[in-house]
Structure formats: structure tokens, C-alpha cells
Design goal:
This protein is an alpha+beta fold. The protein has one domain. The protein is 42% helix and 15% strand. The chain has a two-stranded antiparallel sheet with strand order 1-2. A two-stranded antiparallel ribbon has the order 3-4. A hairpin with a 2-residue loop joins strand 5 and strand 6. Helix 1 runs antiparallel to helix 2 and helix 1 runs parallel beside helix 6. The longest helix is centred in the N-terminal third of the chain and has 22 residues. The protein binds zinc ion. The site of zinc ion has 6 residues, from loops. InterPro entries: DUF6221. This is DUF6221 family protein.
Length: 146
């Protein structure tokens, strides 16, 4: 897992916890409207009825972003291909010949035709875009900015 993946996961954990807390503090009022009973959520003041992002939407957003993060695993050539296979492909000095052997790369975005095509170690654009809304967080690194 990359540092950026950890950063995004930590921010999503905070968002999810806040939304779950808001849902736990939400009560329901019943109203009679045109002869029918209508249930109206009575949210905490910080998640009021005019909130653009109700907690249900925050949880859906967090769930979707977690799935996107899972689709962009960052790995290394050593982990992905395996030492035994690399040795058979590159011979006895295989570790010296593969200079990016332990650099992280996104398995989804940065591998084409079996060859690493990005600058090794830079998180993929997808993860950097997912992190952008949290750029004001003190742990955000400017080199992640897309
Ligand atoms: Zn990616």
C-alpha cells in the first residue's frame, strides 16, 4: 500500500465515522400529510435538513471511493512478478539489472505491455485526484497534487 493510499483511506475513515455518527443521532418524526403518515428525518444541527451532503450520501460516496482505491493497488515489480520468475527471466544478476525493482507503481494505470511506463514511485493520477479534496489537510503532500 502506498502512502497516498493510506492518506486517502484515513480521510475516508474520518468521513465515514462522521456520517455514521450523524445517522446514529438522527431521529424520525411522523407527520400526517394528506391523510398519510410521512416519516421525516430530524438530523443533528450540524447535518441539518438543508445539508448538501446528507450522511447517506457521504456513506455512498465513501463506499464508491473505497472501491476506486481498491481498483488501483500500488505494488512493486518484485512483489508482482516474484523473485523466482524475475531470476528466470533476467539471469543471475537480476536484482542489479532491474533498477525499479522495489519502486511502487499502480497496477491498473502504469503498466502497459508488461513494462512500467511511469516515473517509478509516483502515485497514479486516479489516487492523486481522489486525494485532492483533502489538500488542505496537514498530512497532504504537495507532490501528490495533480
Ligand atoms: Zn491507478
Amino acid at each position: 500500500m502506498s502512502d497516498l493510499t493510506d492518506f486517502i483511506t484515513d480521510r475516508l475513515d474520518v468521513d465515514e465515522e462522521a456520517a455514521r455518527d450523524a445517522l446514529a443521532r438522527t431521529t424520525t418524526r411522523r407527520h400526517r400529510l394528506s391523510g398519510q403518515t410521512v416519516h421525516v428525518p430530524d438530523r443533528p444541527a450540524d447535518w441539518g435538513p438543508d445539508a448538501v451532503w446528507p450522511p447517506e450520501r457521504v456513506l455512498a460516496d465513501v463506499g464508491a471511493k473505497r472501491r476506486i482505491v481498491a481498483l488501483h493497488p500500488h505494488t512493486t515489480m518484485r512483489r508482482e512478478i516474484g523473485e523466482e520468475h524475475l531470476r528466470s527471466m533476467y539471469g543471475p544478476n537480476w536484482e542489479r539489472r532491474l533498477i525499479h525493482l522495489d519502486d511502487l507503481y499502480c497496477r491498473t494505470c502504469h503498466v502497459a505491455d508488461g513494462k512500467i511506463t511511469n516515473d517509478a514511485g509516483i502515485p497514479c493520477l486516479t489516487l492523486r485526484l481522489l486525494a485532492l479534496p483533502y489538500a488542505d489537510h496537514p498530512a497532504y503532500r504537495d507532490e501528490w497534487r495533480p
